[in-house]
Write a structure and sequence with these properties.
There is one protein chain. Helix content is 36%, strand content 21%. The strands form 6 sheets. Strands 3, 4, 5, 6, 7, 8, 9, 10 and 11 form a 9-stranded mixed beta sheet that branches. A 5-stranded mixed beta sheet has the order 12-13-16-14-15, sandwiched between helices. With 655 residues, it is α+β, with helices and mostly antiparallel strands. The termini are far apart. The protein has 3 domains: 203 residues, Heat Shock Protein 90 (2-Layer Sandwich), CATH 3.30.565.10; 163 residues, Ribosomal Protein S5, domain 2 (2-Layer Sandwich), CATH 3.30.230.10; 165 residues, 3-Layer(aba) Sandwich (Rossmann fold), CATH 3.40.50.670. Helix 12 links the parallel strand 19 and strand 20.
C-alpha cells in the first residue's frame, strides 16, 4: 500500500506504507507517548488526576467493605503517599503473566480486580487503567503491601520495574501504601493544590458514609504548621446536602433521605428545599461525578415532577387555573444528591461522565416516586411548603414567559434583531467569532476601535448586572443588560438554551483590573453558571487578562501583568541597577480599560498573537455551586470569612 506526500515542487511522491510503518508501543510506552489520553492533560488537572487514580483504588476497597481509612500525604518535594487499610494488592504469582499480581496491576493497562465481578461488585474506575497509568507517568513509584502477616515492597522508575518484589518480613494488619513522584518530563505543573484535593476527598467521604479520609500537607507554608484535614461523615449524602446548602435557609428541617437496593442499581438519595431560587442537583455513579447527567438524572427529574404534582392535586393545593407544575418549578430551591451503584455502568457524552444504562432510569424513578410520596404523606407541613414554593416559581415563570413574548414582539428577537449597542463582527461562522463583554462605555469605545471587526464583536455593559443568585427568572429577564447579553449570544436561556444557535464560540469577559471589575466579573460568572451553564461546560467562556502597568523609557515599553513583572521591567530598563523608578523610566498604572488607547488595548488584551485568555472550567460542580452561594448569597457571614481567608490574593489590586 502506498501514500503520497509532496516534494518541494508540490508534486506527489509515493512513499511506502506497510507493516514496518505501524508503530507498536509496548507496556506503558503508549501512556508516556500520549499522557493526555489517559489523565486528561499534562497541566494541573492531569497532575491531580494521578492522586485520584490511586485514591480510587482505596475507595473501591471501601465500597467492597474491606477498607475503613485512607490517608493522603503531600510531601515537601510534591511527591504523594496514599495509605489504606484494605486487603492489599495480591502478591502471589499471576497464572498467565508469571509475575506477582502487584506487578501486573502496576505495569499492564486494563489489568486489575475491577474486571472480576467476584472481587468488586462495583468500582469507580472509568477506564480500568488506574494505578498503571500513575506508575507510567511518575519519575518513581514505590508500593508497599501488608497482607497475610507479611510486608512486601517494589519500586519502579518511569513505569519500569527497578526491583523485584521483596519480602520485608513479618507485619501486623493489612493494606496498601503507594508513594509516587510525578514526572517533571511529563507534567508542566508539579505543585499540587491542597484545596483541589480537599474538595475531591471531602466529596468521596460524603459519598461513602463512615469512611475516614485524612489529607496532610508536609510542605512549608510561611512558617505555618502542617495542614491536616479529616473527612468523616456518618450521615453520608444527608450530610452532603447540608454542606452544599450552605447559608440558605431550609424550607423543612428534615432532609429527605433514603437508600434502597434493586436488581438494576443500589440507590441513595438526599434532598432538601431552601429559600433560594437556584437548583443544586448533583449525581454520581460508582463515586464518579456524572456532571453531564444521564438516565439516573432523567428518572429523578421525572419522579420529582410526577410525585409533587400528584400530591398537590390529591390535596387540592392548586387553583383551578393552574394545570400543574413543570420540572423547573418543582426543582427551584432544591439541593439534591443522587448516588447510584451500578455493576456495569455504560458511560457516554463528551467526557464519558453521562450514564447510558436505560434500566437505571426506571429503577431510580420508581424508588423516588415511592420514597418521596411517603415523605410528603408523613410530613404535610413540609409538603405544603414545598408545593407553595413551586407554585410561586410557576407563577414567576409564567410572568417571565409573557414578558419574553412581549419583548420578542417589540424587538423582533426571533427575526434576529440584535441589541443596538452591540458592535457585531462581519464573519457569520460562530466557530471563528468572539464576543467581548466589556465593562463600561469608555472601555467599550476603545475596544470597538481597537478590535478586528471581521471576527470580534463588542457588547459594552453599563454598571453591574443583576445578582442572579438572589433573583427569580422573571426579575432576571427584566434586567436590560442581561436581556442584551442573551440576545447577542443567541442561544437562549435555561429551558430554551440551545448550543446549536450560539453566535460566538468565544465569549470573553473583559473588566477593569480593580475591585469593581472583579465584582462585575463575578456577577457575570454567576449568571453564566446559574442560567447558561452549558456554555461553561462546552468551554466557551473566557476571561481577558489586561495588564496592570505600562513601563516605558524612551521608545522602549513593556506591559506588566503583576507586581513582580513591573519590578523586573524597571530593573531591565535601569540596566539592572535597581527596582526604583528614575532616569527617564515612567510607570503607568491602569486602573481601568478606558485608560488605554485602542492600539494599546488591542496589543495587550485582544490580539490573539499576544493576549492571554483564561478559559473558565468547572472541576467540581458541587463545590462551585457552594462557592457562588457563599459569594453572592444573602448571608453575609460566609462571604466575610471567604474574604478574610483569600485577602492575600488581591495584593496586586489598588484597594
Amino acid at each position: 500500500m502506498t501514500a503520497k506526500k509532496t516534494d518541494s515542487s508540490g508534486k506527489g511522491v509515493e512513499t511506502e506504507y506497510n507493516a514496518r510503518q505501524i508503530q507498536v508501543l509496548k507496556g506503558l510506552e503508549a501512556v508516556r507517548k500520549r499522557p493526555g489520553m489517559y489523565v486528561g492533560s499534562t497541566s494541573a488537572r492531569g497532575l491531580h488526576h494521578l492522586v485520584y487514580e490511586v485514591v480510587d483504588n482505596s475507595i473501591d476497597e471501601a465500597m467492597a467493605g474491606y477498607c475503613s481509612k485512607v490517608e493522603v500525604t503531600i510531601h515537601e518535594n510534591d511527591s504523594v503517599t496514599v495509605v489504606d487499610d484494605g486487603r492489599g494488592i495480591p502478591v502471589d504469582i499471576h497464572p498467565t503473566e508469571g509475575v506477582p499480581g502487584v506487578e501486573v496491576a502496576m505495569t499492564i493497562l486494563h489489568a486489575g480486580g475491577k474486571f472480576d465481578k467476584s472481587s468488586y461488585k462495583v468500582s469507580g474506575g472509568l477506564h480500568g487503567v488506574g494505578v498503571s497509568v500513575v506508575n507510567a507517568l511518575s519519575e518513581w513509584l514505590e508500593v508497599e503491601i501488608t497482607r497475610d502477616g507479611k510486608k512486601y515492597r517494589q519500586r519502579y522508575i518511569r513505569g519500569i520495574k527497578e526491583t523485584e518484589l521483596e519480602e520485608l518480613g513479618r507485619a501486623k494488619g493489612r493494606g496498601t501504601t503507594v508513594r509516587f513522584q510525578p514526572d517533571p518530563a511529563i507534567f508542566t505543573v508539579l505543585e499540587l493544590n491542597f484545596d483541589t484535593l480537599s474538595n475531591r476527598l471531602r466529596e468521596l467521604a460524603f459519598l461513602n458514609k463512615g469512611l475516614e479520609i485524612t489529607l496532610k500537607d508536609d510542605r512549608p507554608n510561611n512558617g505555618q504548621p502542617q495542614r491536616v484535614e479529616e473527612y468523616h461523615y456518618e450521615g453520608g449524602l444527608a450530610a452532603f446536602v447540608d454542606y452544599l446548602r450552605g447559608s440558605r435557609q431550609p424550607l423543612h428541617p428534615k432532609i429527605i433521605y433514603f437508600e434502597t437496593s434493586r436488581d438494576e442499581a443500589e440507590i441513595e438519595l438526599a434532598m432538601q428545599y431552601d429559600d433560594g431560587f437556584s437548583e443544586n442537583t448533583h449525581t454520581f455513579v460508582n463515586n464518579i461525578n456524572t456532571h453531564e447527567g444521564g438516565t439516573h438524572l432523567t428518572g429523578l427529574k421525572a419522579a420529582l415532577t410526577r410525585t409533587i404534582n400528584d400530591y398537590g392535586r390529591k390535596n387540592n393545593l392548586f387553583k383551578k387555573a393552574e394545570e400543574g407544575l413543570s420540572g423547573d418549578d418543582v426543582r427551584e430551591g432544591l439541593t439534591c444528591v443522587l448516588s447510584v451503584k451500578v455493576m456495569e455502568p455504560q458511560f457516554e457524552g463528551q467526557t464519558k461522565t453521562k450514564l447510558g444504562n436505560s434500566e437505571v432510569r426506571g429503577a431510580v424513578e420508581t424508588a423516588v416516586n415511592e420514597q418521596l410520596a411517603i415523605f410528603l404523606d408523613e410530613n404535610p407541613k413540609a409538603a405544603r411548603s414545598i408545593i407553595e414554593k413551586a407554585v410561586q416559581a410557576s407563577r414567576a415563570r409564567e410572568a417571565a414567559r409573557k414578558a419574553r413574548d412581549l419583548a420578542r414582539k417589540k424587538s423582533a428577537l426571533e427575526s434576529g434583531v440584535l441589541p443596538g449597542k452591540l458592535a457585531d463582527c462581519s464573519i457569520s461562522d460562530p466557530s471563528l467569532c468572539e464576543l467581548y463583554l466589556v465593562e463600561g462605555d469608555s472601555a467599550g469605545g476603545s475596544a470597538k476601535q481597537g478590535r478586528d471587526r471581521s471576527y470580534q464583536a463588542i457588547l459594552p455593559l453599563k454598571g453591574k448586572i443583576l445578582n442572579v443568585e438572589r433573583a427569580r427568572i422573571d426579575k432576571i429577564l427584566s434586567n436590560e443588560e442581561i436581556r442584551a447579553m442573551i440576545t447577542a449570544i443567541g442561544a437562549g436561556i435555561k429551558d430554551d438554551f440551545d448550543l446549536k444557535t450560539l453566535r460566538y464560540h468565544k465569549i470573553i469577559i473583559m473588566t477593569d483590573a480593580d475591585v469593581d471589575g472583579a465584582h462585575i466579573r463575578t456577577l457575570l460568572l454567576t449568571f453564566f453558571f446559574r442560567q447558561m451553564r452549558e456554555l461553561i461546560d462546552a468551554g466557551h467562556i473566557f476571561i481577558a487578562q489586561p495588564p496592570l502597568f505600562r513601563v516605558h523609557k524612551g521608545k522602549q515599553e513593556f506591559y506588566a501583568y503583576s507586581e513582580t513583572e513591573r519590578r523586573e521591567y524597571i530593573r531591565r530598563l535601569g540596566n539592572g541597577k535597581g527596582e526604583e523608578v528614575g532616569k527617564g523610566i515612567s510607570v503607568q498604572r491602569y486602573k481601568g480599560l478606558g485608560e488605554m488607547n485602542p492600539d494599546q488595548l488591542w496589543k495587550t488584551t485582544m490580539d490573539p498573537e499576544t493576549r492571554t485568555l483564561l478559559r473558565v472550567d468547572i472541576d467540581d460542580g458541587a463545590m462551585a455551586s457552594r462557592l457562588f452561594d457563599e459569594l453572592m448569597g444573602s448571608d453575609v457571614e460566609p462571604r466575610k470569612l471567604f474574604i478574610e481567608k483569600n485577602a492575600k490574593y488581591v495584593k496586586n489590586l489598588d484597594v
